[in-house]
Structure formats: structure tokens, C-alpha cells
Amino acid sequence: MTLTGEDLARMTGLETMRAVAAGELPPPTIALLLGMAPVEVDEGLAVFEMTPDERMMNPIGSVHGGIAATLLDSCMGCAVHTTLEPGQGYTTAQLNLHYLRAMQPGMGKVRATGTVVHRGRRQSTAEGKLYDAEGRLIAHGTTTCLIL
């Protein structure tokens, strides 16, 4: 099924996110760049997975913290996206993260879960958690998104 621009304009955020997860819409280019993909999407929820690798390393030998930040920003923002009506947009206004352990190349898939905490008319807040393949918490955070 090929979706047109007119189809997209009539879709809710949840419908759009489900279409991306099902492969009916192409993923955002940042997802392609990092190899992250949605594995679960529902109202107020977005779960992403990716496998950190050596392309993402910082000078001290671990995966750059910006990768975790991007993954958490994405899953929390997409959780907010699932609450949007047709024609609405959003943007991140604030992002707060707490790093607990480093990601390393070769550690396997990591999973980031974003959940909406509050959805108002003009802003939404969400929380996110990033886990390694063994279920250990790598980082967690919150976001405030403006509804456009």
C-alpha cells in the first residue's frame, strides 16, 4: 500500500506511527542513520530498538551519550506523536536525561520505551527508559513537547 500526501494529512499521529512501524511509510532518516526502529506503538507509547556499534564511539571508547539522547528523545517524542490529531505537530521544548551506564559496541540490542505522562492542549510530557539486552537500565529521562 502506497500512502499519498493527502492520506498523511488525514492520519492521526497514532495512525502515522503505526504505518512507519509496519513499513507502510519510510522511517525518518535519523532512524536509518542510527539503525533504530519502532518495535511497538500504541496510544501514548513508543518502543524503539537499535544495536550500538563502533561507528558511534566517543574518544574514551564507549558509545557517545548523544546516541542514547537521540534514542530517548525519539521514543518519547514519538509517544507524544501517537496522541496527535490530523494536522497537529510537535517539537521538543525540553529534554532531561540521566545516564547510569555506558553503551558499548558489541553489547547487542538496546530498547528504549517512551510513555506519555501528561497530554494537555498545548504541551505534553513523557518519560523514557533505555535498557540493555539483559534488562539493565542504561539511562532514563523526561521531555516536554509543545503541541503545534
From TrEMBL:
<feature type="domain" description="Thioesterase">
    <location>
        <begin position="61"/>
        <end position="138"/>
    </location>
</feature>
<dbReference type="GO" id="GO:0047617">
    <property type="term" value="F:fatty acyl-CoA hydrolase activity"/>
</dbReference>
<dbReference type="InterPro" id="IPR029069">
    <property type="entry name" value="HotDog_dom_sf"/>
</dbReference>
<keyword id="KW-0378">Hydrolase</keyword>
<comment type="similarity">
    <text>Belongs to the thioesterase PaaI family.</text>
</comment>
<protein>
    <submittedName>
        <fullName>Aromatic compound degradation protein PaaI</fullName>
    </submittedName>
</protein>
<dbReference type="InterPro" id="IPR006683">
    <property type="entry name" value="Thioestr_dom"/>
</dbReference>
<dbReference type="InterPro" id="IPR039298">
    <property type="entry name" value="ACOT13"/>
</dbReference>
<dbReference type="InterPro" id="IPR003736">
    <property type="entry name" value="PAAI_dom"/>
</dbReference>
<dbReference type="Pfam" id="PF03061">
    <property type="entry name" value="4HBT"/>
</dbReference>
